[in-house]
Design a protein that fits this description.
CATH class: Mainly Beta
CATH architecture: Sandwich
CATH topology: Jelly Rolls
Shape: globular
CATH superfamily: Jelly Rolls
Helix content: 40-55%
Distance between the termini: 48 Å
Bound molecules: adenosine-3',5'-cyclic-monophosphate
Order of helices and strands: HHEEEEEEHEEHH
Largest sheet: 4 strands, antiparallel
Number of strands: 8
Number of domains: 1
Structural class: alpha+beta
Radius of gyration: 15 Å
Length: 139
């Protein structure tokens, strides 16, 4: 493993502590499956009621999630778009870039593959989705 790759992996795990538990042999996979994507202020990343084909991890910048007329902001280290992938239901909210953003994107197919091999990560993502659902129901 070269120095550059090791640095990228370290950075990835520091930004997303969710992946801390992944063993060293599997860490390189992170760089292969998670595809970089950039967005500009005002870009709509996820549209409510559309079919979900990917999950997004925020590397830098801020996005706004519009839930029941209220705005929730998510920054570096957070993720969104997990609900549609977990449930198969349409997107539950619009998600818009507030400023310049960098994401790592996990496709639906790679989400399945990755989460089936990393049940602890899956459980953490699932717990967050349930928390968000409960929040939205209460609002
Ligand atoms: P999904 O339904 O696929 O697409 C919209 C996303 O917005 C959703 O997944 C969550 O990732 C995110 N989201 C929905 N509700 C909330 C909330 N209350 N707080 C933060 N993020 C949310």
């Amino acid at each position: 493993r070269d120095h550059e790759q090791a640095r990228k992996i370290t950075e990835f795990i520091e930004t997303f502590p969710l992946f801390k538990a992944i063993n060293v042999d599997d860490q390189e996979e992170l760089l292969l499956l998670f595809v970089p994507k950039a967005a500009s202020p005002g870009d709509r990343i996820v549209r409510i009621r559309e079919k979900g084909d990917a999950m997004y991890f925020v590397v830098s910048g801020t996005v706004e999630v519009d839930v029941n007329g209220a705005a929730v902001q998510l920054g570096a280290g957070s993720f969104f778009g997990e609900m549609a992938l977990l449930t198969g239901d349409p997107r539950t909210a619009d998600v818009t870039a507030v400023d310049y953003c960098n994401f790592l994107v996990l496709s639906r197919r790679d989400f399945r593959l990755f989460m089936s091999r990393h049940p602890a990560v899956r459980a953490a993502v699932q717990a967050m989705a349930e928390e968000r659902l409960a929040m939205n129901r209460a609002a």
